[in-house]
């Protein structure tokens, strides 16, 4: 969702802001704008629509000279997408301009308060109150005004604040919404994520809640809410600009599908030592694990689907009962958890509003929390007791692929680690599974070249299908959930994932002549059951595309189209079978001319409820 970028330094600000905003486009937005300070005045250019419109309006930034400014991409929440609702928002006096990510929950009350003081509002947004509020408290000291304004705000925010009296510095602050500071010889930056500034610097400062920074041309100063200056450590981003570029691929999604072997390798590499899973990154001991009588996994979207895989794997290996819940449900259902519960939170971005709220609820109820996160320093990573990073690198396509795959990998690693500590599985079995896990990246690497043309061929046959079904049992069902979501997200074709055994309890009435059913038959012990399900749907006219392991070639006799995937331990099969499903979704969307990397209405990170 919304993106922020800010710069002050020795270069023109507008072209840097425009480039940064283009790099943030993937987060999803419907309007954009910039505010540039020059000669004690703030010029704002903003518009509904794409960054290219902003680029045209400012002639690539040339029409808005100045070396200090902030920019924003907005995904409408309060007020429709429009020029006037776009950020930056200006205070009535024109002295203050603000960009904001998040939601000011008490904005109605603040609006009323400021209205009584004579402030006139021009937009429908919650953000405009921040511009007026900072202006209201501004008596010549921007830091003082920021502290007083922030003290009045409830909700989540990342704010970039420009003041016309400050030609060398602007202010920024965050709470429960990501914002980082970037440092370089040419000047200093803020951004809602690293991709916006990676082409300028890899040196970043991660801000904590309610730390206010004054970002200056020559350096930054950070303060707590008592206006005491604080030291902030500087971190180095470990990935390069190529990671945030398409590198010859038509879409980020395809690039990220192809990056999966490397991403999974990177996830596993630091955690395997002499054939053992070593999770140095977490504090959980054998005694802690013994203390848990339940594990609850909570997440949204594909991360939730990774959690469904996690349930099967964790239960089988650790024998601890596992429950998986959507974060948006978990947070409001008064979950029964206590200090004997381990709550596992899964999130690529580490900033999904519902997932973050679920984490906070779990902590409030006394659970121990472990998060599986991709973005370093994100809110979820910071709030959790322990974090296992997925090390997938930046994921730009809205539809997740490599982040999902690395989430599965971390879940496998954690399950093996816990099983080892708890002694719930013989050491020899764990060693065998570790070897299988290590082989996964090579297997996916070998699968991809053949799978790509094969799925392109099948997409050319089925791209016009409507209302199709994905069916599977056990871990195949978990993979079906993700395959179905991938297709829906990017091709806009409706599909449903069903536990194959459940079909006959209603859904089979939807099977008619020519209906496409994608049957996942990769769990060996359930292969015959799946063949029966295929027979049932075919008898009612369905066309079946089936996935099975290479040793079950016989699937070709039962299905209209058969796709063979390499074999691993059944516990890890989802990692292999999801690859053809991702490619199928990709090529179907491509055949339908869809905007694959930026599907309609979707945002990469969903920072609102
Ligand atoms: C959005 C994305 C999905 C993602 C979900 C959860 O809906 O489009 O791809 O799975 O959010 O995001 P998270 O960052 O928490 O994994």
Descriptors:
eight-stranded antiparallel beta sheet, 27 strands, seven-stranded antiparallel beta sheet, 609 residues, binds 6-O-phosphono-alpha-D-glucopyranose, alpha/beta
What bound compounds does this protein have? 6-O-phosphono-alpha-D-glucopyranose
| Strands side by side in the biggest sheet | 3-2-4-1-10-9-11-15
Q: What shape does the CA trace take? A: globular
Rg over C-alpha atoms, rounded to the nearest angstrom: 25 Å
Number of continuous helical runs: 18
For the terminal residues, how far apart are their CA atoms? 12 Å
Oligomer: single chain
Provide the helix percentage. 25-40%
> Total number of β-strand segments?
27
Helix-strand makeup class: alpha/beta
Q: List low-pLDDT spans.
A: none
Average of per-residue pLDDT values: 94
Largest sheet: 8 strands, antiparallel
Q: How much of the residues is beta strand, in percent?
A: 15-25%
Short description:
With 609 residues, the protein is α/β, with parallel strands linked by helices. It is 36% helix and 24% strand. The longest helix is centred in the C-terminal third of the chain and has 36 residues, at 427-462.
List the helices and strands and how they pair.
Blueprint: E1 3-9, H1 13-24, E2 31-38, E3 41-48, H2 51-57, E4 68-74, E5 89-90, E6 96-104, H3 107-116, H4 128-137, H5 142-152, E7 155-163, E8 169-175, E9 180-184, E10 187-191, E11 203-206, E12 212-216, E13 220-223, E14 229-230, E15 235-236, H6 252-258, H7 260-268, E16 272-273, E17 276-277, H8 286-291, E18 294-299, H9 301-318, E19 322-326, H10 327-330, E20 341-347, H11 353-364, E21 368-373, H12 379-383, E22 386-389, H13 402-422, H14 427-462, E23 468-472, H15 475-491, E24 495-499, E25 516-521, H16 527-539, E26 543-549, H17 555-558, E27 561-565, H18 573-591
Parallel strand pairs: 18-19, 18-20, 20-21, 21-22, 23-24, 23-25, 25-26, 26-27
Antiparallel strand pairs: 1-4, 1-10, 2-3, 2-4, 5-6, 6-7, 7-8, 8-12, 9-10, 9-11, 11-15, 12-13, 13-14, 16-17
This protein binds 6-O-phosphono-alpha-D-glucopyranose (G6P).
